Amino acid sequence: MSYTLLLRICSMLYGSCMAPISDGKDYSDFSACALEGTRASNELILFLSSEEINKNQLYIQFTCMKKPDIKL
What is the pLDDT of residues 6-52, one digit of tens each? Predict the structure, then answer.
C-alpha cells in the first residue's frame, strides 16, 4: 500500500483553500508521507513572504491519501 501527499495553501481570512497540489511521489507508508508533509509545509510557508502570510492569513494544509492497491 502506498500514499500520495497533497498540499494546499489556505486562507483563514477568506475561509478557503487553493486546489491541492501533489509532489508526484509515492510513499511506502503513512509515517513517511506525514513526515514529508510536515517538512514540505514548513518549506512552503517559509517561501511565502511574511507580508503575504499576514495580509491573507495563510497557512498550509496537507493530507496523505491512501492509493488503492491495483491487482492485475
Answer: 999 999 999 999 999 999 999 999 999 999 999 999 999 999 999 99
Strand, helix or coil for residue 38: helix
CA distance 41 to 68: 25
Is residue 25 a contact partner of residue 37, using CB atoms and an 8 Å limit? no
State the pTM of this model.
0.84
HSE at residue 11, side-chain half, CA atoms within 13 A, is: 12
**DSSP codes joined into one string, 44-70:** HHHHS-HHHHHHHTEEEEEEEEEEPP-
* CA–CA distances in Å: residue 58 to residues 15, 25, 29, 38, 66: 10, 25, 28, 16, 26
- Beta carbons of 61 and 18 less than 8 angstroms apart: no
